[in-house]
Amino acid sequence: MKELSLSQEIDLHIDRVQDFPKEGIQYKDISPLFLNSELCTKIVRTFADLSRGKIDAVCGIESRGYLFGVQIARELGLPFILVRKAGKLPPPVISQEYNLEYGNAIIEVKKGYIKQGQRILIHDDVLATGGTASACAKLVQNCGAEVSQFSFILGLSFLGGIDELKKYTQDIHLLLEY
Hints:
Elements: H1 6-12, E1 15-18, E2 26-29, H2 37-51, E3 57-61, H3 65-76, E4 80-85, E5 93-100, E6 103-110, E7 119-127, H4 131-142, E8 146-155, H5 161-165, E9 172-177
Parallel strand pairs: 3-4, 3-7, 7-8, 8-9
Antiparallel strand pairs: 1-2, 4-6, 5-6
Helix pairs in contact: 2-3
């Protein structure tokens, strides 16, 4: 029997939920990945290998970006920086507002956590339109750091998010694309 590629293995563990969160959308749920610790280890090691020697810290985007982001940072022996929705972190914080399809949102990071000149990996679970990851990249740049890489478990390529992120770096990793 032929061994599956990592992307094939991930795909087998993605639940497809029709008409969620609204009619006409097929939601890709990564939750089943966490039932397979061996697969999670492969994912973390793959991301770590892609980043080794290229980054100084990992920024994980709330909340599902934390699930693998903190493990990637630990695997590399690097700091993990929480990027949260507005109002979740105690002051002082640095904020970045961005547009969503249904309004505006704000993400924040603790002041001083992202250091001047650091090379940052921005990690999240899914790349859709790229709006949140792009806002995180602006936040990183506003702190005087460099966006070195982006990483995502999966990308919804038909939404064009990868093009949005190429403004910051060409080093963008998606383990699975739909």
